[in-house]
Amino acid sequence: MGDQQDSGETTKESPFWRFSLSIYGSDGVPAACLTLQDGSGVDVNVLLFVLFAASQGRQIALADAEAIVAAIEPWRRHVVVPLRGVRRFLKEAPQGFEGQDIPALRQRVKMMELEAERFQQEALYSSWPVTALGVPAPASQAARANMDVYAAALSAQFDSGAVSALLDAFLKIGEAFT
């Protein structure tokens, strides 16, 4: 979710989007997400989705995680990642563009990136009803298991400190979304 902020409540926002904004606003979560994104290839939106599923008392299966990753990958690769790359590139004015209003352009790109992420989250929410995923499980158990399954779907190892930060935040707010 980058270093994004809520763009305002709309009727199109799902409980998953509201969950994401809530957990992402927790101490340590943005840094943990960035660590996992840059270090393990995590799609933060998918990561938040598996935590949202846990908040609904669902422990997802590896096959579910793999299907979600495969379905979302084209959007992530062709829309979200390029917008993120442009936003990051514009952090400082490129040589020869110092007199231009690069911060304003970066802000517009940032808003486009946030909107692309919201679209991705709405697609996740509508395409994979969490009650149809995996099996019922206590939220705290499901959160850890879902992160492990997502790591397995990526064939990645997640940074333990980042996982701990996410699980701590989840325990503080996650079960409020059941």
Question: What does this entry look like structurally?
Answer:
The structure is a single chain. The protein has 178 residues and is an all-alpha fold. The protein has one domain (15-177). The protein contains seven helices and two strands. A two-stranded antiparallel ribbon has the order 1-2. Helix 1 packs across helix 3 (44-55) and helix 4 (62-89) packs antiparallel against helix 5. The longest helix has 28 residues, at 62-89. The two termini are 22 Å apart. Mean pLDDT is 90; it is low at 2-11.
Helix percent band: 55-70%
What general outline do the C-alpha atoms trace? elongated
User: Largest sheet at a glance?
Assistant: 2 strands, antiparallel
Strand segment tally = 2
Structural class: mainly alpha
Counted by DSSP, the helix tally is 7
Main-sheet strand order equals 1-2
pLDDT below 50 for ≥5 consecutive residues: which ranges? 2-11
Report the span from N to C terminus.
Answer: 22 Å
What is the alpha-carbon Rg in Å? 16 Å
Domains counted in the coordinates: how many?
1
SSE pattern: HHHEHHEHH
Concise summary:
The chain has 178 residues and is mainly α. It has one domain.
